[in-house]
Amino acid sequence: MMMRVVVVMWFLTGCAVSRSQVPVGVEDFFLDPMGKAYFLLEDARLVTGNQLGGNTYSFYDSSLGGPDYVDVANPFQILLYYRDYGMVLILDRTLSELDRIDLFANPAIRQPGALARSYDNGIWVFDNWSYRLLRLDERGEVDRQTNNLRLELNGPGAPDALYVDRNAVMLYFREENRMAVFTNYGEFQRWVTVPPATDLSWNPPYLLGIAGGRSWRWTSGGTTVTDLGPLPEELAAERRVLAGPDGFLSVEPGRFLLRKTVFE
Fold first, then answer.
1. Which residues pair with 156 in a beta bridge?
2. Per-residue pLDDT reduced to its tens digit, 82-111
3. Which of 7, 48, 218, 227 counts the highest number of beta carbons within 10 A?
4. What is the DSSP letter of 3?
5. 135: buried, middle or exposed (CB in 10 Å: 19+, 13-18, 0-12)?
6. DSSP-assigned states of every residue in 31-54
7. pLDDT 10s digits, 117-168
8. CB neighbours of 210 closer than 8 A, spacing ≥ 6?
9. Is the pTM of this model over 0.90?
């Protein structure tokens, strides 16, 4: 069936910045479980709307620069990860710093790699050195870990990304074009094969892959991938595109505003 594309302006609930002009370009964006948008700007600032109106909330740490990973799964404890520094920052809903966790200072972690917020408010981190998946509690202490996974996963190298949904923890291996799926307790379940992708975006429970002008979507818990066909022409130059239940999500150029491109 040919995909039908309709572009609509989509205002997010509680996102008071939607009418504001963007002073610099948007590098990436993220949606929390309530649908509120957070924007990572080209100058490495993370911004979001103030539900009371007025100015946007903003965060930037000049000593760390731009974060390598942003996780808004818990909007009351937003997670920023600075991989080169082994540093995790926790922000509140106004983007004020609550805490920071130094992974390099944790003797249980030799080489922190991919990382994500766990469903129960902890942190999953993959140790590239010991090849273990570890869960940290809110104090940053290891309270759960797997055995060395090299034999179980047949040693595909360090994972490129870690995704968490309510019922699963997933390690993505780009060169292998597949994901290792674990339970929330760190028990390996199965492999899921996905098509090659030059760009990946995670908007739970949807993983969107884009390569060569075509796109696909995988839904957490599923065993098959949906081919979405050619990426709509108006999205070809976008820096970041997410998948929703019924369409692509992107940032309206020059504004803190999201648009939805419906697919069928």
1. none
2. 999 999 999 999 999 999 999 999 999 999
3. 48
4. P
5. buried
6. E-TT--EEEEETTS-EEE--TTSS
7. 998 899 999 999 999 999 999 889 999 999 999 999 997 899 999 999 988 9
8. 197, 198, 199, 200, 231, 241
9. no
